[in-house]
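so my prof wants the structure for this chain in the tokens format not the other one, which i didnt know existed until like an hour ago. anyway here's the sequence
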Amino acid sequence: MDTSSINKMYINLIKQGHYEKNYLETIQKVKQSNAIYKGKPVPFLYHPMFFTIEDIEKFRSITKTLMSIANKVIKQYMKSESFRRKFNFSPLLEELILKDHGYNMNVPIGRFDIFYNGDDFKFCELNTDGSSAMNEDNTIARILLESEALKKMKETYNIDYFECINQWVDESIKLYDEFIKINKQPTVAIVDFIESATLAEFEEFKNAYENKGYKAIICDMRDLKYIGGTLFYKKEPIDLIYRRVVTKELIDRQEEVEDFINAYKDRAVCVIGPFKSQILHNKIIFKILHEEDTLSLFNNDEQAFIKQHIPKTELFNGGYDNYQEVLVNKDQYILKPYDLYGSRGVYVGLDYNMKQWEDILKKCFNNDYLVQEYFHPYERDFVEFENHEVKVNPFKCITGLFVYNEKFSGLYTRIGKNHIISGLHGYYTVPNLIVKERS
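here's what i got, hopefully its the right format
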């Protein structure tokens, strides 16, 4: 049993059956759910992403190796001033990273996006602070598992999904217990700039904390006040912060959140995640990992892992030769800003003619951009309903590995037909289902 044969089985099932009516019913269920992104129901297909136990074991192995690499990089950052200069972080961010955050986990949460085909993989980006979309996957997975097509599939296989909400609550409380070192029920604040927040997802986490007996609130980071050694939201003392504010946005708006920053510096509140995670989150890490002095930090297997799976990346700056190489060979490159998210400011040479590409390069050159080898995403066939017909079309796929406390904990997949797969470039979310043989 492999994912390719399972996927073909599902496609044949849809082509031979009469599922359009159930597909339309499923659309309505998603519209009525909390699978909301930027105020709209999440676009999805009546076709999940299937994985086997063998795939899951590979994801666990990928996670273990990546986290070993991450911890060695963070350790080097903490002890070496010359190594810190590679990242060119602001004085405030460097100060926050160097602070002891009160528990041993450097990267408590992440979503590490890869292009994966069952045999090989390539990293796209590493998300730590602000990692999201657990609710998208879980909500659509639960709805699709009740669809007529998957009920039919479940006659042959055991099919399930990774629950990502309650699991995170349990993992975050483990860190709080390590931080506080006494038995105390925390008041939890899920914190972001509200205009940037994914509120439907925040509500799911809030409900999960409350269902486990914890007081939880959703609040804007600007509304936190640090008084007498305690961080408050209104009159409520806050013990544990689940930080969803992206680090770059926080640093850019530091004058608006001085109370939070001072509380963090004083270790007056348990903050998940800590600023150390930005070392892995910033896209410059892809360049730094390939540098010889950085490679020397790792064992042979980790070095091979980096060389095979981390795309080669360089600063898009310097002289004429660097610029000309990217201009002339546009189809081989992708441009990414140092530290934006959601594919903002990303350009793929394949999407532009030479004149357009040259205009983009002039804007990006020597302007905090990275140039990276473009990797063609792996494709998988999915069914679509078009004009009352079942169509089978290839989609490019990107799969995120949710990692909680350094353990592989769940999945998130987006698919699309464009060279960039993101919410800005036309996409579908497809739930990730684990398929097992019936015993």
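also thought this was worth mentioning. The first helix runs from residue 3 to 16.
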